[in-house]
């Protein structure tokens, strides 16, 4: 490999390949959001004889989240062993098959199983997609393009609500066709992901320097190289780790604080968001708004727009500032629903639309921040584990949502949401590492202590 390359991956000028991979990774996130969101409408139009009790509604609603936990925790780390490219494409095959299988389900248990498989596919994509994209982007694009995955996820969720709303009048079997529509974007993205190259950072970790340099020169720039990564790799020590060893390493003294915090902040953001949006029509009805589908569509529009705003905000403030401030703002935005006995329609819509807008801004960090906390040798495992931890809270919240709503009422539900968001703000203010304005390997430098909190760089 010729030494002294003019550019590294971190500082290479933006090229078409960067935006292509961002679009393909975003396609996966669109499918993730679509697959989770489409259940919202399907549950609302299920025929009464299907047997969807509050218990089964919670079980089915949480199925994809349980699958996401399994896929990201158990299969995500496989990308650290076999490479990013294989799983980057294979997970969409699973998406496609499981999406069509929803046409065949006959009862809540079968629907739970199929949604579980879809969740596994989503979990693989959560771990591999952001990891792969982060490893080919220069640092000045990392914030907006990785953050943009969250915005695309939200547009996928919004698109599912629109499609479901349009198809909801097809008759008693409409819910099956509504669910199966996720096969369409899965097929499209699957085709376009064929032929992507392997991550050059991962190739360097395997000692395949010439292949890594060839990928960089072909897809990024003839003046770019991986000599900086090679030097860092050759100076490092230690044998290659198995999947289990990678997971153990994440909870070692050196990495456990980052692993646990990455999972925690994601739990605190995703638990209320996932539960609320899965059962949004029912929530609006419980708060006194007839015709829950129309305000659901309005709130999801705020959700999608907030994701776009978050792409800009992520480069204007530090990671810590964005995390802490949005937790407080989300808590304040829904607090009125916890204390006002019978809020009017204007209050309900304003509070939930404001929450959706702020949560979408905050959610941009779910795909940016974890990728910056771990080195290449652990990145897929770290991102996958953080996503898996987040789904524990999201699955529990989604399972309990209809049960708590039916048993204790909507105010108890919203009060619990406010408490979790306040906890997220307090913990983030105390322990969140700062990663703004640094190269990927610098932010993930192997050290026990968190990165300094007084970084004021802007990317």
Automatic annotation (TrEMBL):
Tell me yes or no: is Signal among this UniProt entry's keywords. Answer: no
In which domain of life is the source organism classified?
A: Bacteria
Domain Major facilitator superfamily (MFS) profile as annotated: residue spans: 21-436
Please name the GO terms that the record assigns under molecular function: carbohydrate:proton symporter activity
- Keyword annotations of the record: Membrane, Transmembrane, Transmembrane helix
- State which residue ranges cross the membrane: 21-43, 55-75, 87-105, 111-133, 145-168, 174-196, 260-285, 297-317, 322-340, 346-369, 381-404, 410-428
Please give one Pfam family short name. Sugar_tr
The protein's topology relative to the membrane is: Multi-pass membrane protein
Similarity annotation: Belongs to the major facilitator superfamily. Sugar transporter (TC 2.A.1.1) family.
Full protein name: Putative MFS transporter
